[in-house]
Write a structure and sequence with these properties.
The structure is a single chain. α5 crosses α14. The chain has a single domain, classed as TIM Barrel, CATH 3.20.20. It contains 14 helices and nine strands. The relative contact order is 0.15. By secondary structure, it is an alpha/beta fold. α5 links the parallel β3 and β4.
Length: 329
């Protein structure tokens, strides 16, 4: 049986609710039903068929559309409700603990259901850190304080560091046992968070900045990676062509070797045991904007020869080991 794959960043509920996509359909059927603006890459059956055993499934609310915390929280609650409905229908399993993970992986070998670890991308749905305990009780296990700037921290395109409210949030996270996702933090907030936060850390989806280009603080610099090397973290390579090669132009193909190049540069700074995949498939782009031949979950296995001899670790094992160490016991 193929080894399990892990994808550390998919906006499943966002795409289902914001775009009206039925992610319970086979991928080919969803593509037939979707005229644009881009071609979907992920559905639940596609994840199962590919052997994706675990997904970090986001609660993502666009702060430009929902700037008020109460509105953002309402949208995030709808997304959480969809994940729970899929679980009740027997389409996924939500993983909340290391014990859940081990039990899921045993069952996955026969039923192939994707397991979901819930990740809140951007904390602007929290009016106060005091609300975090309720989200934890409802299954949230990973949290990134910012996407764009939030009251908690500077985000992509911003320069602010942690606010006092952000430090309070990190303290609450550490007390509850939530892991900190450093993706999208401004560079100042990134370093301040690493210094302030005592719990587990990860970078769900980011690439090597000297190869990636793009917004200055969207990807990881050598200095950021050096700071991360002292923590038990994993970094997920994201598969958007623009983030793999800043020279990419729509209509052209980025070769999959570019994914391996980013993985190799990350590994040179943090070690191959700390590199994974955080594809961000359908994260505002579709199959027309992913590397040549990497257009759906099953095609992740096409990266195998490019990542050898670290294939199983990068495509799944490193994230599984990190989850076993850092999910609540």
């Amino acid at each position: 049986m193929p080894y399990p794959l892990v994808d550390a960043h998919l906006d499943l509920a966002y795409n289902a609710l914001e775009h009206g996509w039925d992610l319970t359909l086979p991928l080919d059927e969803l593509r037939r039903q979707t005229p644009g603006p881009y071609r979907p890459t992920v559905t639940l059956p596609a994840l199962a068929e590919a052997g994706v055993a675990v997904v970090f499934a986001t609660l993502f609310v666009d702060p430009a559309r929902y700037p008020h915390p109460a509105d953002a929280a309402r949208v995030a609650r709808r997304q959480l409700g969809l994940y729970r409905r899929w679980e009740a229908e027997g389409r996924v399993r939500i993983i909340e603990s290391a014990r859940d993970l081990d039990a899921h992986l045993v069952r996955w070998r026969t039923d192939r259901l994707p397991g979901l670890v819930l990740l809140m991308e951007g904390a602007h749905a929290l009016a106060s850190p005091r609300e975090l305990a309720t989200w934890f009780e409802d299954g949230l296990r990973l949290l990134g304080p910012a996407w764009k700037d939030t009251p908690y921290a500077g985000g992509t395109g911003g320069s602010a560091g942690l606010s006092p409210l952000g430090r309070e949030l990190l303290s609450a996270m550490a007390e509850l046992g939530l892991a900190l996702d450093l993706a999208h933090l401004s560079e100042a907030a990134y370093f301040e968070a690493l210094d302030a936060f005592t719990g587990p850390v990860l970078v769900s989806h980011a690439n090597f900045r000297p190869l990636a280009g793009g917004p200055e603080n969207r990807h990881l610099s050598p200095a950021q990676l050096s700071a991360l090397a002292g923590r038990d973290a994993v970094v997920g390579v994201t598969l958007y062509n623009r983030f793999l090669d800043p020279r990419w132009e729509p209509g052209n193909a980025v070769p999959p070797e570019r994914v391996a190049a980013h993985a190799g540069e990350l590994a040179a700074h943090v070690g191959w045991h700390r590199v994974g995949i955080g594809s961000d498939f359908d994260g505002g782009f579709g199959a027309e904007s992913t590397p040549a031949g990497i257009t759906e979950p099953a095609s992740l296995r096409g990266l195998e020869p490019l990542l050898a001899p670290h294939t199983e670790a990068v495509l799944g094992g490193n994230w599984l080991q990190w989850l076993r160490r850092h999910l609540p016991r």
